[in-house]
Amino acid sequence: MNLGATIIKSRRSVRSYTEAGLSDEIIRDALDCAHLAPTAMNIQPWLFGVVTSRDLLSKIAGITDHGSFISEAAACFTVFGEKEAKYYLEDCCAATMNIIICLQGYGVGTCWVAGDKKEYAPLICELLHTPEKYSLVSLIPAGYPKKIEIPKKKAVKEISFFDEWSEQGRE
Ligand SMILES: Cc1cc2nc3c(=O)[nH]c(=O)nc-3n(C[C@H](O)[C@H](O)[C@H](O)COP(=O)(O)O)c2cc1C
Fold first, then answer.
1. Of 171, 139, 155, which is closest to residue 56 (Cα–Cα)?
2. pLDDT tens-digit profile of 55-71?
3. What CATH code is carried by the domain that includes residue 7?
4. Mutation test residue for ligand 1: of 13, 110, 150, the one with most atoms within 8 Å of CB
């Protein structure tokens, strides 16, 4: 198994963190990986924030509906997309995964918390004073794992096919 696959397969969403902070080097490397994600026509229609202020982390946690654990995170990466760019959602999701996988490589746990499609998305933009042309795509709380859950995944053979799909290959 190659290094990329090993890191990807070791990742699970982490919603409980120790009190240890993230080094500047790790935060900067995660941002570096974010900005190297593929984007349609290489437009790079994004803006990345890093929240480490305890006060802001608690406020973000309170605004989300399923992100109360953000208040415990060492940092929360925030990914914003340029609303006018046709593929901003896909582009920003690619960047989100780059951040998550980069951090996993350092042993830092994360959990993708929804931003796009959530009614609270504009409230996060307001809180962080982001320019009007951006909307929130994702929140990525990060920290060293205190507890790791291992959710079940569908079997690969149930959700994949080679060449043409057929009912027969489904048993
Ligand atoms: C678009 C998206 C939105 C998500 N939003 C939340 C969320 O708001 N709160 C949360 O606790 N987890 C959230 N998750 C994490 C999923 O619950 C998690 O990925 C899923 O249960 C599978 O677990 P795993 O990440 O450990 O494989 C989100 C994941 C994605 C991709």
1. 139
2. 999 999 999 999 999 99
3. 3.40.109.10
4. 13
User: Is the predicted pLDDT of residue 54 greater than 80, yes or no?
Assistant: yes
Find the domain containing 140 and state its range: 3-170
pLDDT at 89: 98
Give the DSSP H/E element, type plus range, for residue 105: helix 88-105
Distance 109 CA to ligand 1 centre (A): 13
- At 169, the pLDDT band (50, 70, 90 cuts) reads low
Tokens describing residue 89: 């959602």
Q: Would the pLDDT of 94 be above 80?
A: yes
- Distance CA(36)–CA(95), nearest Å, equals 8
**Gap from CA of 93 to ligand 1 centroid (Å):** 13
Best of 66, 111, 120 for a ligand 1 pocket test (most atoms within 8 Å of beta carbon): 111
Q: Read out DSSP for 48-64? A: EEEE--HHHHHHHHHHS
Tokens 């996993």 sit on residue: 104
Count CB atoms within 10 A of the CB of residue 49: 18
pTM of the model: 0.97
Domain tally for the chain? 1
Give the pLDDT confidence score for residue 1 in this predicted structure.
Answer: 78
Distance CA(119)–CA(89), nearest Å, equals: 16
